[in-house]
Amino acid sequence: MSAADSDAVIAAVQGVSGASLQPMLVEVVDVCMSPGARETLLGMRFVSAVALVGATGVDRVMAAALLREQECPHGYFTSVDDAREWLSRLPVPHELEESGV
Fold first, then answer.
1. Given its phi and psi angles, is residue 79 left (phi above 0), alpha (psi -120 to 50 degrees) or beta?
2. 6, 24, 47, 83: which could join 37 in a potential S-S bond, CB 3.0 to 4.6 Å?
3. Alpha carbons 76 and 51: distance in angstroms, whole number
4. What is the tens place of the pLDDT at every residue in 26-50?
5. DSSP annotation of 19
6. Which residues of 39-60 are buried (b: 16+ CB within 10 A; e: fewer)?
7. Do 77 and 51 meet the contact criterion of CB atoms below 8 Å apart?
8. What is the pLDDT of residue 100?
9. 43 in helix, strand or coil?
């Protein structure tokens, strides 16, 4: 994943969510991320929470690198159902204008 890929992800998420921060579930499978991509994703808060789902030790390491500096609620899960259940218990997302982001 390159910085340009990260820019495209952010634009797509914002295109779907509009002016509100929404939770995001990401399945981490065989992801290789450039330092620029990580910087891009960590440089902007564009989701209300993130649940990363993986199955291997490499997935867990990638998730830890992505989640380490997140300001929003975040977690790593080995089950999509567990991740969805965790996301459903979080507070309702708010508008971007209210968050100061």
1. beta
2. 6
3. 6
4. 888 777 888 888 888 878 888 889 9
5. T
6. ebbbeeebbbbbbbbbeeeebe
7. yes
8. 44
9. coil
How many other β-carbons are positioned within 10 Å of the β-carbon of residue 65?
14
CA proximity to 95, closest of 20, 17, 22, 24: 20
pLDDT score of 97: 41
Tell me the C-alpha distance between 60 and 8, whole Å. 24
Mean of pLDDT values over 4-28: 88
Global confidence as pTM: 0.76
* Pick from 38, 29, 31, 30: nearest CA to 69: 38
